[in-house]
Every structure is written in structure tokens, then in C-alpha cells.
Design goal:
The protein is an alpha/beta fold and 272 residues long. It has a nine-stranded mixed β-sheet, with helices on both faces. Helix 3 runs parallel beside helix 4 and helix 4 runs parallel beside helix 6. The radius of gyration is 18 Å and the shape is globular. The structure holds NADP nicotinamide-adenine-dinucleotide phosphate. The site of NADP nicotinamide-adenine-dinucleotide phosphate has 28 residues, from helix 1 and helix 4. One of its GO terms (molecular function) is oxidoreductase activity.
Length: 272
């Protein structure tokens, strides 16, 4: 019988099984994560997508909205999974649920991320930013590690940012040089190092680990006003990085993943 903890679309109980390739995407209730769930769900019947959301209610609503919007074009399956990357109990519970239902995890997309744009003191901003963008990602990956080890071909993808490139920060020609965002930049630089450490640590069991640059996109990252500003200034559709992430999990970017740099959505690499 199907366990009740995951709400699902796209599968009947009989077709939901551990032979499917299981992908979890945290922070999937909006922006790049949401579009990635949709892109993967319509890409292959072999995928079962776990739509990670820090709020169970929001995850369920997102799942219902996807079903309404995509209907029969969903080829694989999607389940909502509550996971707050800043809450170790929720991460452990998510791991236990995946283990009970699937026994393994093939792809982990560490997508959850924030920019602190409210007026708070510097230390509060740094702590909040790093807790979500770095500490949470490390704990999620290391908690899921035993499940990833059971996959025949596993990927850990960190959704980073070119804002975290130390080389570009000091490049006088760099397009986004004028943007400050020091705390966010520092967190993504640390995330890049985390991806390098995990690439090294997991090499002996063949896990492919990468930091991914999704480009500047329309999303909720800087709130409603930020969203409007992004649209006005021509930020990209989050479907673009979503399609690039589908290519990554289909193995089309494996050669780039070997290299010491961020994998860019448009092909090629962005320097650390
Ligand atoms: N958009 C860009 O231009 C851009 C550029 C470079 C990199 N990125 C990166 O892309 C990733 C996705 O961002 P986005 O642009 O799509 O922004 P978004 O629309 O704000 O999506 C971020 C997602 O992260 C989730 N999240 C935040 N804190 C979380 C937590 N503690 N646990 C679980 N989920 C949490 C949010 O959930 P709630 O809605 O429930 O808070 C939301 O679903 C981030 O890592 C961001 O840094 C974005």
C-alpha cells in the first residue's frame, strides 16, 4: 500500500516503485525549483520527482497547481515532500520517508536559497543567509548520502550563482560588478567550495557533484517588488535554467561537471 506521507500526481500506486529514478528538488514551490519540477516531470516517464517545500501546505498547493497546469503532459510522477533545509528534524524525516518508499535517491538538487533584503543588522543577515544557502545544503546532502550511494548513477547539484564567483568579483569587465550583495555573494562562494569538497569526498563511489549557475531570472528571490523589477529589466524566464538542469540529469553535461568551475545554464562554465 502507498504510504500516506507523500501526495502524488502522475502515477497510479502500481507504477510507483523503486525502479524509477528518484529526484528531490528542495525549494521547489516557486521560481527555478518549480520550473525544474515541471521540466523534469514532462521530460521522462522514468523520473519520480520529489517536490521539496519547507511548508507542507505550500507543497501540496504547488503540486495541485502543477497537475492543473500540465495534466496529461506529466510523464513521470511527482510527490510533495516537506523539507526545511534549516531544520535538521525535517531533513531527517524527509530522508526516512524517501528510504521507506524508494530505498534510494538518484539526484539531489539543492536549490533552496535566500537573499536577505529586509533591513536587519549585519550579523543577522549573515547568519540567515549562510544558514539557508550553505549550512542547510551541507546537512541535506550529508543526510541523503546513504541513499545517493545506493543509486547506480547519482548527482548532487548545488544551485549556486555567478554572484559567488571570486574571479568575476574582481573582473572590471564583469556585467554585474556594480551589484553589492556581499553576504549573498559570500554564501554562494562558500557553496561553491562545498560542492568542490563533496566532489572530492564522493569521487570514490562515483557521485557527480556540481555547482550550477542559473543566470539572472524572474523569481521570488527578492520579493514582489524585486520580481517586478526583474521583469522590467529583462531578467530571464526560470524555464531556461530548468531546461539546462534537465540536460544535467540526463548526463548531457557530464564533461563540464569534471571541470573546476560552475556549470553554466547556457553551456560552458563560469569560473569559481
Ligand atoms: N533568480 C535568480 O536570478 C538567481 C540567480 C542565481 C542563483 N539563484 C539561486 O537559485 C535558487 C532558487 O532561487 P529562485 O530565484 O528560484 O528564488 P525563489 O523563487 O525565492 O525560490 C527559492 C525557494 O527556496 C525556498 N526556501 C527558502 N528557504 C528555505 C528553507 N529553509 N527550506 C526549504 N526551502 C527554502 C523557497 O521556499 P518558500 O517560498 O517557502 O520560502 C523557494 O521555494 C536559489 O538558491 C538562488 O540563490 C537565483
Amino acid at each position: 500500500m502507498r504510504p500516506s506521507f507523500l501526495s502524488q500526481v502522475g502515477y497510479t500506486t502500481s507504477t510507483l516503485d523503486a525502479r524509477k529514478l528518484t529526484r528531490i528538488i528542495e525549494g521547489a514551490s516557486s521560481g527555478i525549483g518549480l520550473e525544474t519540477v515541471k521540466a523534469l516531470a514532462t521530460a521522462s516517464a522514468d523520473f519520480h520527482i520529489l517536490l521539496g517545500s519547507q511548508s507542507a501546505e505550500k507543497g501540496q498547493k504547488t503540486l495541485n497547481d502543477i497537475q492543473t497546469a500540465l495534466g496529461d503532459s506529466i510523464k513521470g510522477g511527482i510527490s510533495a515532500l516537506q523539507i526545511d533545509v534549516c531544520d535538521q528534524n525535517s531533513i531527517k524525516a524527509a530522508k526516512d520517508q524517501i528510504e521507506a518508499q524508494f530505498g534510494k535517491l538518484d539526484v539531489l538538487i539543492n536549490n533552496a536559497g535566500i537573499i536577505v533584503y529586509e533591513q536587519v543588522d549585519t550579523l543577522t543577515s549573515l547568519r540567515k543567509t549562510f544558514e539557508t544557502n550553505v549550512f542547510g545544503q551541507l546537512i541535506v546532502t550529508e543526510t541523503m548520502e546513504p541513499l545517493l550511494q545506493k543509486s547506480a548513477k547519482s548527482y548532487v547539484i548545488y544551485v549556486s550563482s555567478e554572484q559567488g564567483s571570486i574571479s568575476e568579483r574582481l573582473n572590471p569587465e564583469y556585467e554585474y560588478r556594480q551589484i553589492r550583495g556581499d553576504h549573498y555573494r559570500m554564501s554562494k562562494a562558500a557553496l561553491n567550495m562545498l560542492s568542490a569538497c563533496h566532489r572530492y569526498n564522493y569521487a570514490d563511489w562515483g557521485c557527480r557533484v556540481l555547482a550550477f549557475n542559473p543566470g539572472w531570472c524572474v523569481s521570488n528571490l527578492t520579493g514582489e517588488k524585486g520580481r517586478e523589477m526583474r521583469i522590467k529589466l529583462g531578467a530571464r524566464d526560470p524555464k531556461d535554467p530548468a531546461m539546462a538542469l534537465v540536460d544535467v540529469v540526463l548526463g548531457k553535461r557530464d564533461a563540464d561537471i569534471e571541470k573546476p568551475a560552475m556549470v553554466d545554464l547556457d553551456g560552458g562554465l563560469v569560473p569559481w
